[in-house]
Amino acid sequence: MQQLLLDLITAPPPTLAGFVVGKNHELLTLLGNIGTGEAKEKALYLWGEHGAGKSHLLRALAAGNGMFLDAAPELRLDASLASAPLLAIDNVDRLGEAGALDLFNIYNAVREANGTLLVSGPCPPAGLKLRADLTTRLGWGLVFQVHSLTDEEKIAALAAHADARGFHLGKDIGCYLLTHWRRDMGSLFTALEMLDRYSLETKRPVSVPLLRDALANNLKR
Question: CB neighbours of 166 closer than 8 A, spacing ≥ 6?
Fold first, then answer.
């Protein structure tokens, strides 16, 4: 049983279809066009709070023929990355000085090669504590805030996901998950799928007590 639950904690690969849109309709339309090669804009910067879904979106776009990189202070960006059809750099604010200079040079090279560059950070480009010429470049393209779902929207999305799996999810269960589990939608959906399987294995109905037992026994963060 414990091994089954641990296996289910691994979330499926992110996709645009798997992203709960909320207030991000315009952004999702644009990203869909980028994915199909129909978008004219080739540089896009996404910002928003932790858990809003920035990493999900960048990974989803890069999953085809693109390249995804999660920034870190020691990360260096080779010039050859500019030849990728789509380059996605997540958490750009974590880049060190050398990595920021690399990205500045790559930004220019990607534009010249007519490639696509997607970058994410916690705030608009002007608020990043990176070299000024890079933040200026990042502001040249389209800048979108990724809006987080409200708690009500998250609970509604969880209920719809449960309905699709063939079981009812009461609002009390959704509220309990939001209070005692990771609040990003990927983690919430994974917990919900685990809860469904746990219910089937134990032959107990989906309820707050069942969820509480699962979290206490197997799903501590």
Answer: none
Q: Which amino acid is at 72?
A: A
Residues with Cβ < 8 Å from 160, sequence gap 6 or more? none
Distance between CA atoms of 88 and 12, rounded to whole angstroms?
19
User: In angstroms, rounded to a whole number, what is the distance separating the alpha carbons of residues 81 and 58?
Assistant: 16
- Range in 5-9, 49-53, 158-162 with the lowest mean pLDDT: 5-9
pLDDT digits (tens, 9 = 90+) for 61-97: 999 889 999 999 999 999 999 999 999 999 999 999 9
CA distances (Å), 129 to each of 43, 96, 111, 122, 142, in order? 20, 10, 23, 11, 19
8 pLDDT band, cuts 50/70/90, is very low
- Could you please report the per-residue DSSP string of 75-97? ----GGGGGSSEEEEE-GGG--H
| Residues 6+ positions from 126 with CB-CB distance below 8 Å | 135, 139
